Batch of 3 targets.
Target 1
Amino acid sequence: MKNLTVHEKAAYSLTAAMAALFLATAILAGALMGMLGDTEKEYSNYRTNSEIELSDLEKKKNELNAKLSDINNRIELAEKSKSELEAKIWQTETELNELKNSIGSSDQTYKKLNAQLSELEAELKAKEAEIAVLNNQVSEITRSYGADINKQYEILKQIYTLLENPAVKGAKISLYYEDLNRGYTLKINESAKYPSAGCLRTPFALSVFIAASNEMADYEKKLAEYEATHGTSDGLPSYKFKYDLSRMFTYTEDKAVSGTGIIKDSEFGTEFSHKELFEAYLKYGDPVAENELTKVYGTSLRKNFLSNIGTVAMKTDPSQATATDLALVMKQAYAFCESDAYYAPVMKDSMLKGVHNVMITPGIVGRDVIHGSGWADGAYHDMAVVDGDHPYVLVFMSDMTSNDTVNKYINKLASLINELHNAFYQ
């Protein structure tokens, strides 16, 4: 074998080092490409599953910036017009003062200038009002785009990690979030069907409350018309209520039902108005109230309600529901609660004070949670509207059963959704 010179040895060493460096670089590049691929896949999933796409946010931002620019131009023109009006007013006031001091002043000229001054002052007031409206629009636009896409991505990664590792291994879970102001949504397995269980209480009560409120509004209108003709009255003669929630129910031994609720603990002979039955039904899931209310009002109102609002599973079979179905129900419930309908306060108070508040509610700190829950074999659900300046719908459905571990898991999910929602307004 040929002996290598010092220079040849150095050359071989350099070549070997470069080859090793190249190999290491290739390995590192491969690892980085793999990591990049994983990251891109995660980001792609984030954008697809959450429906909060960066391109949509950027498009909206550009649209708002264009609108903002247009409003600023209008403000500039309005301010210029305002300055011109102020100059004309000053000139007119000067002419009026000169006319007052003039020996040859005429009433006709004075009246003309005075009318002109009043007209200019009215124009100035209108222009100031226009500028105020435009400035309010600028403030609203400035507030309306503040979503931190990076922060949302980090929160969503935590949400997906939780969903991939449920409290009960192999559990089926569905999630639905919707910002009621801006329409942003996060939907996970939202079309999966579950037993609707106690979540049927909300559409049943709501459908009756809507009918009863409409009937009360009709009664009050007719009463006002009657009193306008006949004078003050104690009531409208011969008016018959179909949905009279003041009617009374007497709790007797044959109406007793074991299980949840509060009416079962009452003495036989205790009376409750139908309004009180609905409160017990919504707050406690009371079975005595449910039996009586279903017997009196039937389920046709609920059936029509579920069909009219566009539910899919519940429309054909109310015993089955999807997260999308329950979200539609809660949006209608919230709209009713915020209305001036006669029974809206009863509905809202009852849903705020529901006693089974161990799922979504503990994860939302400092805000009212209007909610309804349900549980049965293969069903453990909570559906809510988180109230406030920026309300949102949140529905959680699963085939798990209630225990401390499961409830804390749902609390954490609700807390993360609340963080995601707040990221839009920071």
Target 2
Amino acid sequence: MNEANGKKKGFFSRFFSNDKSEDASNGKEYENAFVTIDYPLENEIVKGLHYGVRLGASKDGSVEISINDEEWKPCRFGSGYWWFDWGYFKPGDYKLSARIISPSGEVIVTSKERHCKVC
């Protein structure tokens, strides 16, 4: 939950969620929800034609990713992580954000932004 509202966030949410994120639930159902972008690392240089973005998240819903504030795209779950198969990108600077969506379509929590560069 948002600490500004007098409600405490869960351990992982305090460290991995974006300060401007909002929890969708009024109750305690999602208070420990978290999502974080594991790879690419902050300011990592990405090379090649394809990159597997790895995300860590609580099991509170499905995960989506946005690159450079464009539309949210679904991620897939496998081997204990969420993944986004990123390809056909152009050289430049990129900003990635992830979020968890509840089964009813509400945004539960949003990650901190992650920046990387494609060469």
Target 3
Amino acid sequence: MPDPLTERQAFMILNDLPNIGPITLNRLLQELGGDPRDILTADKRRLESVRGVGPETSTALFTWHTHFDLAREEERLMQAGAAFITTRDEGYPKMLKEIHDPPIGLYRKGGYLFGQPCIAVVGSRRTTLYGQSVAKKLGAELAQMGFCVVSGLARGIDTAAHEGALSVGGKTVAVLGCGLDIVYPPENLGLYRRIAETGAVLSEFPFGRKADKQTFPMRNRVVSGISEGVVVVESDVSGGAMITARFAGEQGRLIFAVPGRIDQATSAGCHQLIRDGATLLTSVDDILNELSYLDGLRPKAITTEGEPSVLEQLLPQLDEKERRVFDSFKGGAMLGIDALTTATALAPAEVSAALMMLELKKLVTKRVDGTFEARS
């Protein structure tokens, strides 16, 4: 006869059963006394007496062992050095418990226990150097002030925000839209590992679950649910960051948006948010002003020696022509070769050669319209 299930094991089984959402699971817990084991042993008539539970759901619960291999999942947890935490554990984010559809459990890699207020920094995967620079700067400044920076480990803005927090030795949390054993995008494997070492990587999905159109919005509600506020750095009007902002509004979180160029599609979503009432963000002070109610809970700032930035290290290595071209981009200008020729008084061939070297050093990038943009 098999050993009786522990409460944690029952939570894991319920969390991972297909097509049973967190709202239904939380309702079942509430109406059947709060012990997840009682849900798994209840008869189908009792289960179907709960609003939202039909024959398909009751059958899935009643025959859970045909859908879920508990021993295999626990073995994967051990091999991954991860844990499964429930709403009753210390490490479960307190803010997340407040939303109307919190996950009943989370897979967590990393030891961070959410002792600091969180701010989410999110945005487009297809971003500009300006957006990456802003996200990295915000991530670093928020982390230095003692906030935990939350994002989704995606390319672009998410990656920059995580890296900014890590660059100053701060806390950052990545929320995945897939199982913990799947690193997406794959080039962020190193970043994934660094986050897990000092912060946490979270997912509500079991091992092996790939990301899809359903999992990403579910991930986004967790990103906003964990956080006091959500900052959208760059997003088009239909981007995933806009979904996160919508969840933030529904959850009563603060919403901030960074303005951008009016001719950039990646700024259109931010401008729409500002028009609709989001706080226009120009510096981290705007966040602090809106979070004034946190007085008394203000996170403790961290102190760092502050290593030189990549930009500070590269600038002394530029020759005179490269420096003249690079300096022409001050103020966020986006320039073509003709404009750079006029601004620097260099021949077009000299400008092209300097641009090539600056691109190799990743100090400028060529845009789709043929102009160039410098990192700040």
